[in-house]
Amino acid sequence: MRLAKPALLTATALMTVLATAGPAQAATSETRESHVTAVGLHNTYDKAAFPYLADALDSGTGLIEIDVWVFSGAAKWRVSHDLPLVGPFYGQSNNCMSGGLRSGSSNQVFDKCLDNLKLWHDQHPGHRPITVKVEMKNGFNVQAGASAGDFDNLIRTKLGDAVFTPGQLLGGYGTLDEAAKADNWPTRGELAGHFMFEIIPGTFERQNPFDHLPTDVEYGRWVRDHPKTAMAFPSVLDAQAGDPRSRYSETSIRPWFVFFDGAAASYVGGIDTQWYDDNHYFLVMTSAHEVPPALDSRSPDAGAATQRVKDMAAAHASIVSTDWYDLDEVVGEELDRG
């Protein structure tokens, strides 16, 4: 049964309720992925966050994030926060390395970031499950040879069976929605040694009046049409009351979204997040430090940060995303969800 939250419940009042919900329990290898809350890190490709992408992977985080820009010609998949147009490295700025995890030069294309993931994966067999959140800053581009299918081929070529795919969640069910509701997720033990890819629309794309095919719709169609071979999960971006998939007029893609992503403060400000847990959907709550009372965005008190993770677990987050790059003891937390 869904829990109805009062529409006017403030975030501060809700946090008071969550803080008294009792101690959160640590997840185990037998816990299904849908029943786990882990901590993620925002923009882990940024050299201001970590000197090397491998450092982010070593931190214990359950989610890393990479921003990808698409261009025609050489270096189709570029990694940078800002628009990468000029410069010796195609204008890119990132901590992915050319010669190994911590050797060679930085500012590499997305292909090399994936090489870094594979090398780290090979050096850490049975590592914890890690979600790789890819923000497609300016969307896909079929004419540039950078379509949803090209993206899938790149992930498949670089990481192969190290990726847990939509098809594996789907199993014998008709849609991802049916599979999620049936809790067809693997256990943490079964998911060990795997990455999951989440795709969200980019900030540039969302402000581009000439882009008439948003990434979430485009990749949602791709997964609908290629459910057994797709390599990533499309995500519904931004918190919204009710079922946020209702925003898609193309109803046939709605059942292929089981990932949801938005601001933590919005989710706990009156939205019924029990719905996500009841249906075993994957819920990423971003900027958890902004939930009242706000915490330092980078280096908060460890005790307060730990409590915030527990509160977000009680609020049914799958991933509690922050910029707490310096708090390995908190970043490595894995709790029972809800």
Structure description:
The protein is α/β, with parallel strands linked by helices and 338 residues long. 29% of the residues lie in helices and 16% in strands. The chain has 13 helices and 10 strands. A 10-stranded mixed sheet has the order 3-2-4-5-6-7-8-9-1-10. Helix 3 (110-123) runs parallel beside helix 4 (148-159). It is globular and about 50 Å long. The protein starts with 10 loop residues before the first helix and ends with a strand. The model is unreliable at 1-23 (pLDDT under 50).
The percentage of residues in β strands lies in 15-25%
Strand order of the largest sheet: 3-2-4-5-6-7-8-9-1-10
Class inferred from helices and paired strands? alpha/beta
| Unreliable stretches covering 5 or more consecutive residues | 1-23
- Number of E-state strands: 10
Largest sheet: 10 strands, mixed
Radius of gyration: 19 Å
Portion of residues within helices: 25-40%
Shape: globular
Number of discrete helical segments: 13
Q: How far is the N terminus from the C terminus?
A: 14 Å
Mean pLDDT: 92
What is the element string, with H for helices and E for strands? HEHEEHEHHHHEHHEEHHEHEHE
